[in-house]
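Propose amino acids for all 331 sites.
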């Protein structure tokens, strides 16, 4: 099933690019248009826009009508990433210099701001694809709500980095807002375009708010294996992020280990060595924190799949496949 999803993502990618080109040309204002496409061309799976398309199709909607919104979801995701790299101090994204590093801090902020406005322009273009005014307004509303929730989650994440006794409850609420809502957005939007009932949309939102946090936990695990294509493994440790592994290890390790763990996490990024990262990883392995996180992600996906049984079978099958994919991927 993973190979089928990878194939689908590859097939849909060029379609999303065409939509984005309608609002952002490759050539235009230096340090703006070229910077957007520098970032977009660096890769990414296009998972979120694909979710919008498959959800719409599975619920009997016209995928042509959802394409501008799907592209808006991809642009929204990348706008968040551009600003996230600034906030986290990440110099690399997908193996290339981050936008702020290549074009400058000031341009990085402006590029993200520009992309944010183009999200809404794409949504308005949905009407040119035949979407009704009511559905277009609904899409704008869910995007605005999602952006607010995500900003709250990002703030909670940054606040949590100063906490030396982080709770699992605080962590889960953080990733629900930071990742869960905007993972859910494309699926809900696809259902809106398909004119699904309020009950189906409610169930889809419940599904996404389980699968989205599972995606974040899996992403945090990838940071310690593949480095998520940013740099060496352990960027999250250098940033001092309180991942689920940190939360679990904090409760399981000895007082001495805990003291060293938070001393390492609280170091300035540039002073955190790769040896520090490997020590933290070995501590996680010693106390079973990696496996605890993997099991938590699996549990959340299981709960998401229980929710999806209330959906039409085609929608249930495709969403369940994507839910499994997000925790099984290796990059």
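Proposal:
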């Amino acid at each position: 099933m993973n190979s089928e999803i990878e194939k689908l993502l590859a097939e849909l990618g060029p379609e999303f690019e065409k939509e984005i080109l309608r609002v952002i040309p490759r050539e235009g204002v230096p340090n703006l248009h070229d910077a957007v496409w520098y970032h977009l061309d660096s890769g990414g799976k296009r998972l979120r826009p694909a979710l919008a398309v498959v959800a719409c199709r599975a619920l009997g909607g016209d995928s042509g009508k959802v394409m501008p919104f799907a592209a808006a979801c991809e642009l929204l995701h990348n706008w968040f990433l551009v600003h996230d790299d600034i906030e986290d101090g990440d110099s690399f994204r997908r193996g290339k210099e981050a936008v702020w590093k290549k074009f400058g801090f000031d341009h990085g902020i402006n590029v993200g701001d520009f992309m944010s406005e183009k999200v809404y322009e794409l949504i308005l273009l949905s009407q040119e694809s035949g979407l009704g005014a009511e559905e277009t307004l609904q899409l704008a509303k869910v995007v605005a709500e999602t952006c607010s929730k995500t900003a709250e989650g990002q703030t909670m994440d940054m606040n949590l980095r100063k906490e030396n006794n982080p709770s699992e409850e605080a962590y889960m609420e953080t990733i629900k807002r930071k990742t869960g809502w905007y993972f859910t957005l494309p699926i809900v939007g696809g259902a809106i375009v398909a004119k699904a009932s309020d009950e189906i949309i409610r169930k889809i939102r419940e599904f996404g708010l389980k699968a989205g946090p599972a995606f974040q936990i899996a992403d945090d695990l990838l940071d310690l294996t593949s480095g998520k294509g940013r740099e060496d493994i352990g960027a999250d440790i250098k940033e001092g992020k309180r991942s689920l592994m940190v939360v679990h290890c904090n409760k399981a390790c000895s007082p001495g280990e805990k003291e060293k763990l938070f001393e390492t996490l609280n170091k300035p990024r540039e002073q955190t060595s790769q040896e520090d990262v490997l020590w933290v990883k070995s501590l996680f392995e010693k106390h079973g924190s990696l496996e605890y996180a993997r099991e938590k992600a699996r549990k959340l996906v299981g709960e998401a799949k229980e929710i999806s049984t209330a959906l039409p079978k085609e929608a249930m099958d495709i969403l369940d496949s994507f839910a499994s994919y997000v925790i099984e991927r290796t990059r």
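The chain has a mean pLDDT of 94. The domain at 2-328 is CATH 1.10.600.10 (Farnesyl Diphosphate Synthase).
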